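Before relying on records like the one below, remember that each one covers exactly one chain. Contacts with other chains, cofactors or solvent are not represented anywhere in the record.
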Amino acid sequence: MKMILAAAALLLAIIFAASSGVGDPGELHHVVLAAAAIPMAAKAELFTVAEACKILSVSKVTIYKLISIGQLDARKVLNGTRITAKSVEALLAAAPKAEITGKYLTLKTRRRLAHEREQGVSRA
């Protein structure tokens, strides 16, 4: 959808510039560049529950639980719930880095990791 809006904005800018009688091709170039920057400047401030589900890879129930415990900041807009982008970014920033352990690792790898923890060796 955003690609279609970007293409439409670019096309409208070209048509407007051509119909307004821009004489110098350099001026037309600046109009096209300005139109291309419009979609990039508009960043979503609010997400729907469905969009937040996709971003965080969780269910709707989890999103509503996060809202109820205060980890996500939400607003009611008309009939829908909107989640602020800042709260989604803050939740992702505060999340710990995932570490795969246990049965998914071979015995050799588990022993190596345990040895590295004992020695204080860190692999980034």
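Residues 2-41 form one domain.
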